[in-house]
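Sequence in, structure out. First:
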Amino acid sequence: MKITIVTVSYNQADFLERAILSVVDQGYKDLEYIIVDPGSTDGSRDIIEKFKIYFSRVIFESDAGAADGLNNGFKYATGDIFGFLNSDDTLLPESLTEVSKFFQEHPNIDVVSGHTRIIDSNDQVIRNSYSDRFSLISCVYGANTLMQPSTFFRAKCYREINGFNKNNTSNWDGELFVDIALKGGRFALVNKYWSCYRLHALSITSSKKMDSKTKEYTNYIFHKIMKRGKHFFDIPFVVFFRIIKYLCSPQSLYERLSKGAIYGRSEK
């Protein structure tokens, strides 16, 4: 089963080599690795050239943002299963083998998510973070998260929805999964760690750079699923589904209470 991984690289030279090595060192034989760089100026392209032999395709062309860059990469993908890895994140060893095995054993599943380890600039683990069991209604009320670098999906699902919404500049991954679900895609959750998600001074999650856009996205996705705007009587449902989220994942509740939130958190 061929797996295609796309990485969009943009001025992350400090972490890019670690991201690349985490993919190529998987040892997965049927791997297609595509990298997209719309114009890095920090030495990232030198790193890409250094590892060029490992890429199925290198795309050096401008784009309209990360979502558009991912579409540019997946446009050339020939794999059965797709995944995408940010240039400052990493895959954990044997992840792709486990992903392939899961899809072969579960032909009725279209999207599978594992968990992730939150790491700092020096690869030290800060805490764990967990994917939720996916449902559209929990997405509506802001109580559903899939760990993006630990989430993989069938190529046919991606093509059925025409890929990422390139106009989404804050939560393009979340909207992709919602669109797959709206098309009838079937989701699964696996209790395994498949990736490391990096927090550092310049990361979006640490800096809260996307606060306003994220708020816009939550309203947008609510309307996309529910076909209406939010009302005051939705507030109890927000509370209810967030309680259910943590009841279904006590390990996630423990991490949140003992180690704090991820969003807005900077490495020490």
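Second:
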Amino acid sequence: MPTNNTVWLNGTFDVLHSGHIKLFRYARMLAGPTGKVMVGLDTDERIRLAKGPSRPINSLFDRMFFLSSIKYIDDIVSFSTEWELETLRYMNKPKFMVIGDDYRDKKIIGAEHIEEIIFITRDDKSTSNIVNR
């Protein structure tokens, strides 16, 4: 049974940058010493469908390896469909979800399984900006 202080984040996390680390550190603070920080990762196929054939830069295996090396993260899972994402959120019943404020007016898959959604303002760093440079 998941702890009540599970914090959920998800994304591609294709090219890690300082904005991601700040996000994970914030999630760890929310989870507290007995909570859990879970990261959901889009599969390579899902990223290609959303962002084009040149993405992701790093494979799912590599992205999971990189994230597993970050001390703020407790668990990493991958998903390839909206149904899988919703099922993961249902099964883990996170207390919090941390997500960029650009999703404030968008549908959040599985939101009904999360106690509180926390929107954060993104800084000027983004994987897309890094890749486009």
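Remark: Residues 18-31 form the longest helix (14 residues).
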